[in-house]
Amino acid sequence: MKPIQSSIKLAGLLLTVVPMLGAAATGPVPKQLAGVPSEFALMAPANPIAAAIHSKSALLPVTLEKSANGKFSWQTTVPVEGENLRFVVFAGAAKSWAVSMQDPVSKRIQPAEQLALEKRAVDWDLGGSSVPAELYTFKNVPRGDWKVSVESARADQGFMLVEAEGSERLLSHQVAFNQLLGQRIGLVASVYDLEKSAANLRAEALSVASLRVTAPDGSVRQSAMFDDGLHQDGVASDGVFGADFLADQAGDFNAQVLIRGHNDHGGSFVRTAEHLIPVVDSDLSLRADTISGKSVGAHRLALPLSVNSAKTLAGHYRVYAEVWGSSSSRGAVPVAWVGGMSDLVNGALDVGLDTRWISKAGAKAPFELRNVRVEDAD
């Protein structure tokens, strides 16, 4: 399913019921569903925390830039957290890059293929696609921060995937699924230790927290993430970092969270999490705050949601709403949730309601539709 096509957020949509005794449906009515108010929470949009990424590796973007010797190079620090190390190099347009490594103890620089127990060509699954790469495997190497350099005769871009042995895990997720053009999309991140409690590592243990966003047009923006309580990150200095970006284009954004830090033993680690965030234009909006329900059969009302559209749209949409009524003694009364597939016809989407839900709830007018959502059927 694609993201919400039109996120309609209303305090309430006033509903009036127009009885049409003896009226019959004028055409086929798409199958729709309904349920009890106790299911409102189950029908709510997915919680972003449930879709959080738990990462034990780091996918490092590689950009080769011209250096003083006339060649193109890139360098990073790769922590060796145990006795072994594996990393995968995706060499972009080139078939292979020259990779060298500097020992953190002796400071000696050697070609990675000489230090490796094994170097071999592989087809690696990266984002659901098989990508040619080179896998390096190292055994019994000294722990610490190794300097890894990549060199080529041409400018190029690619990635290095570093597999970690440490117990630290990066937890990252969106703040909300507000993936509409013009919205600011927030992400938060923290690090926890599998071998200890679920508590986040303290903020001072994390030396780098950044957000790198690649827009649909290929442009890249990078910003720091903050643990100051001002970036949707909870309380200041709680180990949760936040940042956001403006969804200024429709299409797929790739947002990467990168965190570097050190554990209680002084060892370094690096972790990343990659989020694919589709952003769509807000094609639909409600045209009115009041609708009239019409009888289309025994115990059956059609609730036409009149919409404005920036485009000429047709086809199926998934619609959801909560029906609320009133009671002199109880105030607002939840009646039922209604929803299902609906065809956009003549600028309106129909939602069906069985009037027996109203009787069961003991509700009366005025009625409201709350938490109305319209989603792309795909």
Structural class: mainly beta
Strand arrangement, largest sheet? 8-7-11-5-4-12-6-10-9
Q: What is the 3D shape?
A: elongated
pLDDT averaged residue by residue: 87
What is the radius of gyration? 27 Å
Number of helices: 3
Gap between N and C termini, in Å?
A: 5 Å
Tell me the count of domains. 3
| Helix content bin | under 10%
Residue ranges: pLDDT <50 for 5 or more in a row?
Answer: 1-12, 19-26
**Total beta-strand segments:** 26
Major beta sheet summary: 9 strands, antiparallel
The string of secondary-structure elements, in order, is: EEHEEEEEEHEEEEEEEEEEEEEEEEEHE
Beta-strand share of residues:
over 45%
Question: What does this entry look like structurally?
Answer:
The structure is a single chain. With 378 residues, the protein is mostly beta strands. It folds into 3 domains: 13-46 and 282-376, no CATH class; 57-163, Jelly Rolls, CATH 2.60.120; 181-279, Immunoglobulin-like. 4% of the residues lie in helices and 56% in strands. The protein has a 9-stranded antiparallel sheet with strand order 8-7-11-5-4-12-6-10-9. The protein is built from 3 helices and 26 strands. The relative contact order is 0.22. The longest helix has 6 residues, at 356-361. The model is unreliable at 1-12 and 19-26 (pLDDT under 50).
